[in-house]
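User: Predict the complex.
Assistant: Input components as received:
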Amino acid sequence: MNTIIAANWKMNKTREEAKESVSELFRLIAGADLPETRRVFVFTPFTCIADAAEAAKANPKLLIGGQDVYPADHGAFTGEISPAMLRDAGARWVLAGHSERRHIIGENDDFVAEKTAFALQNGLSVMLCIGETLQEREDGQLKDVLLRQLTVVANNLKSKNLVGSLPQTFAVAYEPVWAIGTGKVAGEAEVLDAHAAVRSILEDLLGPVGKQLPILYGGSVKPANAASLLKLDNVDGLLVGGASLEAKTFMQIVAAQ
Ligand code: PGA
């Protein structure tokens, strides 16, 4: 399985800044001796996708993605963006259900499932983000939340016959909400436990395909904790917010092993 190190820039960077960052990352990757299976994704603001994709295009292991997508081809959906528009700009991947979309913008499980299936049906690969709030963890609901979030998506994918192609086009990012942007990284035991739960739920819901899907960890990943996180069972990559904004810092995470 590939190891995916993904940058989520959130609402940061102008086009010029994005071009500079991706070009620098490109140079750093070209000069580094990365493991053969390592892949690097950068989820940029919509306005930066085309410039970032242009800067990344000569390296097939460096892919650009969007941070969200709407489940329709076109029409009266003010402020939204379609899979075809993202692909046209140069995006290959898209995030679905990031915790900031769920908790700040108010997206629910059904909507996340709908956009996941629609993006896959329309030529984008999807990184589905899941994770529990602090309250849910303290109430002992971690596994129930993961099961609920994954079941809605898996049922939707099954009903649309999308499961067969998932190993190449789908990844799950486990991001405990309380660890995002807070500096509180989940402890090793917590990450192992949550990732084992995600793996077993994926296998229960999707059969053998569930074994082949990359599960990334996200939430306050930094150069100092990247290598130890990547060594844990069922951690197949990292999704990085704050520490991905500066190319040199992010590169230390990309190269961690
Ligand atoms: P963080 O964000 O690394 O800044 O905690 C992670 C994310 O939101 O994907």
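Residues 8, 175, 180-181, 218-221, 239-243 surround 2-phosphoglycolic acid (CB under 6 Å).
Let me know if you want any component modeled separately.
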